[in-house]
Amino acid sequence: MAANGNGEFSFGKGTARKGLAKIQTAASQKKQSAICHDDSTPPVKAQTIDELHSLQKKRSAPTTPIKGTPGSFSPVSEEARQKQQLQSISASLASLTRETGPKVVRGDPARKAETPKFAADPSDHFSFTPTISVSDSSLKFTHVLYNLSPAELYEQAIKYEQGSFIASSGALATLSGAKTGRSPRDKRVVKDETTEHELWWGKGSPNIEMDEHTFLVNRERAVDYLNSLDKVFVNDQFLNWDPQNRVKVRIVSARAYHSLFMHNMCIRPTPEELENFGTPDFTIYNAGQFPCNRYTHYMTSSTSIDLNLARREMVILGTQYAGEMKKGLFSVMHYLMPKRQILSLHSGCNMGKDGDVALFFGLSGTGKTTLSTDHNRYLIGDDEHCWGDNGVSNIEGGCYAKCIDLSREKEPDIWNAIKFGAVLENVVFDEHTREVDYSDKSVTENTRAAYPIEYIPNAKIPCVGPHPKNVILLACDAFGVLPPVSKLNLAQTMYHFISGYTALVAGTEDGIKEPTATFSACFGAAFIMLHPTKYAAMLAEKMQKHGATGWLVNTGWSGGSYGCGSRIKLPYTRKIIDAIHSGSLLNANYKKTDVFGVEIPTEVEGVPSEILDPENTVSFPSL
Ligand SMILES: Nc1ncnc2c1ncn2[C@@H]1O[C@H](COP(=O)(O)OP(=O)(O)O)[C@@H](O)[C@H]1O
Ligand SMILES: C=C(OP(=O)(O)O)C(=O)O
Ligand SMILES: [Ca+2]
Ligand SMILES: [Mn+2]
């Protein structure tokens, strides 16, 4: 379309002259008798396109009224508060050798027009901002994208991160890069005078030691990398819905994907809570795109996830798998909470209409998320909880579901939660319709969706509940020898909790290609910090005190091992779980098995009786 200089517009070259109807403008219409005028809509209140675009975005309303009037006790102006916040972020990103933080400014470097108003260094007067990375990061500004909204993070991801797309459901589909599962062999913990005595070290322990100095080397590497970038994302959020034991976390990352993931997974502060956030209790530096240096002492690959409890910091190098952040923080809670006599649990948790709470312990991929998301019950959380004197509380603000073979029919609530705002990791979708094929394992079998807990319609918010009535241990048995369900006495519950017989399912950990039998203490050995007996003793004490019943539920194979038997059908497992919740299974008829001495029911409503006893289904090879 081109203007011909007379205020008239034509399509193509000279088409108007060749007799096609002229496209008429308001000005040209006025001159003629107005037959087809349109005065019903007011003209746009802009003289230029730039002005029009400036109308599109309304300034965010001040989140809370600025407290204090001039002269009242300690008034904090909006300007002073923002300055404090940026100073805090600059301090978080400080180089320990130079002992200074970068010059940080708020806002997107791409939006030149919106000159940032506040800088961390009060002496800064700047008129332009370099947008290229320079090796001496102290000469440039690091732009901080602070607690962006999901919509803003979508735009950042789609504009700047390769492999980020909007799926047809509205979720943000993205790739986590070379790593699509956790790297437990690259997770290190600083051994110092305190942690040497407090933590579980050595054989069987997930805590691979590193020294303070090496931690600082990796921290410097991560911080230098982050400071060399144009912009970083900062999330200030909370862990734990128990208000007395809430932990403030700050996540500094380089990808919108990571920021949106943590926005979904941690508890989102209200605007007022954010204004009064102050100093975080724990900080993650996620420089996952950048490798660690293999010549650094202790490093065995280019990936390292380093935890320093004394500094209250975690550094991530060489893996972009977002699960490292959420599970890394879970490790921190496994340290902090038991110190306060609160038991941290690798479990899902839901509550019935009558207030009966159930815990679902289980190693990754064994069914915590699937089985705690139950349309007939309130969801308290899918993965990480605390059990204290007042009952249970979720640590997180979101859920992280495995979505391989996800179907709308079998898991409607999870299906519907994968909408705008949710992060979909490593899934495959149709290039045109953007419809996800949940059966496709081309990228990984460990495809995942992370969504805020309120995306589940019957989520219980705040995510807290009374003391549990049932403690369900989910074991995914790759050999098919465990019965689908058995009732445990307290001693048996402790035995199974400490030994943690289950399977690592494919993809959740680096290098695991098929279900592999394992013993994972506390059904989460990768995340515990103290010796398993410490958690087990607390669990026994709480179960006894509150009269909870223990159950062992096999969500894995029956009638033979992986490869010859088949996985227990999800609808059967759901029926078993229903019978536990309703109390009907507690009062069923039982028989003792020879193998573990556990009691197995002879009947469960909706489940074929012959599968309840493995002796009927397993064919052991004759000797
Ligand atoms: N009998 C079963 N019980 C539970 N989950 C099952 C069963 N059979 C298949 N599954 C599948 O196993 C996966 C369990 O994953 P998930 O619930 O996310 O585990 P977790 O939350 O413990 O990591 C889901 O993909 C689910 O559909
Ligand atoms: C996220 C993980 O596990 P889960 O399925 O238990 O959340 C993980 O192991 O990386
Ligand atoms: Ca028998
Ligand atoms: Mn889960």
What labels describe this entry?
623 residues; alpha/beta; nine-stranded mixed β-sheet; six-stranded mixed β-sheet; 15 helices; 24% helix; 22% strand; globular; binds adenosine-5'-diphosphate; binds phosphoenolpyruvate; binds calcium ion; binds manganese (II) ion
Task: Write structural notes for this entry.
With about 625 residues, the protein is an alpha/beta fold. About 25% of the residues lie in helices and about 20% in strands. The chain has 15 helices and 34 strands. It has a nine-stranded mixed sheet with strand order 3-4-9-10-11-13-12-7-8, sandwiched between helices. Strands 17-15-16-26-30-27 form a six-stranded mixed sheet. Helix 4 packs antiparallel against helix 7 (about 255-265) and helix 12 packs antiparallel against helix 13. The longest helix is centred in the middle third of the chain and has 17 residues, at about 210-230. The termini are far apart. Calcium ion (CA) binds next to loops. This is Phosphoenolpyruvate carboxykinase (ATP).
